[in-house]
Specification:
By secondary structure, the chain is of the alpha/beta class. Belongs to the sulfatase family.
């Protein structure tokens, strides 16, 4: 049986509600909506962390961020009432990556295109099993902006004014075309990690103008979308306010989303043109929640609470679309919770590679879900022991079934939510359901011990406002 090609799209800062197929009425995503119609849409898929680098390390290692030791976006550091905890500033060389396993155990050619943010130098994609690396470096976002000249490592500048998302899609298309032209070509793993839709919010002018007009037609330009909240908890932002976006109405962000969708459509069309589509599994997801509380707050994750950098659903619940012709029923939906490290064993199983020892990885293969079969996975965990740039405070959480428990480290407070009845996490049930709260707390504590999760200590230099 021919091994399937693998195309993994990972978006940067794309929120759960940012696609038409997930309910957005302002952003237009026809290509991704079609992908959902041709495959499976997951309603309860999660990133393993509310910020980027840990989720990326989690995908490539199959481990939770606390287990792999990358718990903060690389380069991040903040203190408040609590001190910061150390973390690896790269994907450790000791980790046998997904790309390495696919190449060595299953005979795949492996390509990385786009954002990396898992270290530079000896930690670049080439050092973690990728045959080709285009535009992947230690950069966490386009430091010179989305328009050429980019002055970006691992990517030559294009003509002045060229748009980054268009350019890296061009590069990926060339890889697909080359593979299609080769006789007896190996199956490919294309790890396409977009820089979009991370700040800066920059997009082609014609699309920005389109959404300015759309916002005006809908009357959204007359609504103040930002609600000012409390001060930040971390020291370096304690004089700033959290600014929560209530509605999706930012023309620049909408334009970035549409351009992203258009370019994904170009890749999907290339697969069709080359005769590769029927033997390619396409996966689309994001690294953390949409940016909704700071740094211009360009999107809203409502009805989910908060966004990037927070332990609430808006920080970690993500879109997940999977198309696998002949294996996944078109137009199907899955309500079972999944998490980023699940991609590792799932893709190895699909590729026919030997399974990894359960002591080495935390993810569970979700291939039974593709067939609508029963799936027993147990609880899902998160650990983010840092202050975020978006207002979130250090904490950890666990979800089992419909219930989610959050523990905040500043005051050891606990919050329990029934996500089936309260997706917005508005009613804390911890006092009403003390037995369930303590049961989940015991599981969370045991897991923290198992993965050797680091807990922040009180900051001796902290002074309250």
């Amino acid at each position: 049986m021919q091994k399937p090609n693998i195309l993994l799209f990972l978006m940067d800062d794309l929120g759960w509600k940012d696609l038409g197929c997930y309910g957005s009425s302002f952003y237009e995503t026809p290509n991704l909506d079609r992908l959902a119609a041709e495959g499976m849409l997951f309603t309860d898929a999660y990133a393993s962390c509310p910020v980027c680098s840990p989720t990326r390390a989690s995908i490539l290692s199959g481990k939770y961020p606390a287990h792999v030791g990358v718990t903060q976006f690389i380069g991040g550091h903040a203190v408040g009432k609590l001190s910061d905890v150390p973390y690896f500033h790269c994907l450790p060389q000791s980790e046998r990556s997904l790309a390495t396993a696919l190449k060595e155990d299953a005979g795949y050619q492996t390509w990385h295109v786009g954002k990396w943010h898992l270290g530079g130098g000896l930690s670049l994609p080439e050092r973690h099993g990728f045959d080709i690396n285009i535009a992947g470096s230690d950069w966490g976002h386009p430091l010179r902006g989305y328009f050429s000249p980019y002055q970006m490592p691992k990517l030559k500048d294009g003509p002045e004014g060229e748009y980054l998302t268009d350019r890296i899609t061009d590069e990926a298309i060339q890889l697909l075309d080359r593979a299609a032209s080769e006789k007896e070509a190996k199956p490919f793993f294309l790890n396409f990690w977009h820089y979009a839709v991370h700040t800066p919010i920059e997009a082609p002018k014609n699309l920005v103008e389109k959404y300015k007009a759309k916002a005006k037609d809908l009357g959204l330009d007359q609504i103040d979308p930002i609600e000012r909240g409390e001060h930040f908890s971390c020291d370096h932002k304690k004089d700033q306010y959290i600014e929560r976006r209530q509605i999706q109405s930012d023309p620049g962000y909408a334009a970035m989303v549409e351009n992203m969708d258009t370019n994904i459509g170009r890749l999907l069309a290339t697969l069709e043109r080359n005769g590769q589509a029927d033997n390619t599994i396409v996966i689309f997801t994001s690294d953390n929640g949409g940016l909704a509380t700071s740094e211009t707050s360009p999107t809203s994750n409502a009805p989910l609470a908060e966004g990037k950098g927070w332990m609430y659903e808006g920080g970690t619940r993500e879109p997940l679309l999977v198309r696998w012709p002949g294996q996944i029923k078109p137009g199907s939906r899955c309500v079972e919770p999944t998490t980023s490290p699940d991609l590792f064993p799932t893709l190895l199983e699909i590729a026919g590679a030997p399974p990894q020892p359960p002591t080495r990885i935390d993810g569970k293969s979700i291939t039974p879900l593709f067939k609508g079969e029963a799936f027993e996975r147990g609880p899902i965990f998160w650990h983010y022991p840092h202050y975020s740039n978006q207002g979130g405070c250090p904490g950890c959480s666990v979800r089992e079934g419909d219930y989610k428990l959050i523990e905040f480290f500043e005051d050891d407070s606990l919050e329990l939510y029934n996500l089936r009845d309260d997706i917005s996490e508005t009613k804390n049930l911890s006092t009403e359901r003390p037995e369930l709260t303590q049961e989940l707390k015991r599981k969370l504590d045991a897991w923290k011990t198992e993965v050797k999760a680091l807990i922040p200590e009180p900051n001796p230099n902290w002074k309250a406002n």
